[in-house]
Specification:
- The chain is α/β, with parallel strands linked by helices.
- The protein folds into two domains: 224 residues, Rossmann fold; 37 residues, no CATH class.
- A six-stranded mixed beta sheet has the order 6-7-8-3-9-10, sandwiched between helices. The protein has a four-stranded antiparallel beta sheet with strand order 2-1-4-5. A three-stranded antiparallel beta sheet has the order 11-12-13.
- Helix 5 packs antiparallel against helix 6.
Amino acid sequence: MAITASGITVNLGGKPILQEVGAQIRPGEVLGLIGPNGAGKTTLLRVLAALLVPERGSVDYDGASARALGRGTLARRVAFLAQGGEAPSALSVEALVGLGRLPHRRPFADAGDADREAIWRALTLCDVAGFAGRAVGTLSGGERRRVLLARALAVEAPYLLADEPLAGLDPQHQLDTLQLLRRISGEGTGVVVVLHDLTLAARFCDRLLLLDHGRLIAEGAPAAVLDDSRLAQVFDIQAIRGSHAGEPFLLPWRTLDNGKTAS
């Protein structure tokens, strides 16, 4: 059981965005997509969500293609949190999160008990239940981001693909969000998350997939992927490493200039 992508190649506007990239999303783990700006992370996530068809390559969902599954089944199987996260400003928070239940309902059918339970569970998990009656337009950027994550969680899909879910969040809610993703992965959900914070990626992800210029540079455990040579090669940085409470960490510390440490 897994989402398996093989040989994914994407060109946009004549520019190569992804080149022969493979990935596997397994139930019960958090896979972090990392890499510099423009590395192809969002494009790969959109391919995995069947929102973008690659020029070459394939994606299988537990052994079936998106076409074989159909849009309805795929929408119940894969939840997607987009990077932009726009929503009608007049819509209530509860109604917005309720949109995550549409794949489970017949057209024009009212929400049932299972839908209402899923909506409130998602609102509570994302610490936005207190906003349920508010209009989306009254929320801050960070609050809106948490509400949109709640909408994705309300799908209760076996796979969650989240594009920069920490964008705009304060430190508390960044940690809360990653702890939540760890929690749902522990319950069996396969989670893919695009992250820019290497410290958090190293701490909270089971595996990392490192992209650069549309190519897969490395995949594996965080400690193996984020070694000193790759930090220098891909990110042009040095990092400080240590441990706290038995957990290793790395902290980006200096930029590099032609192999020389910046002052």
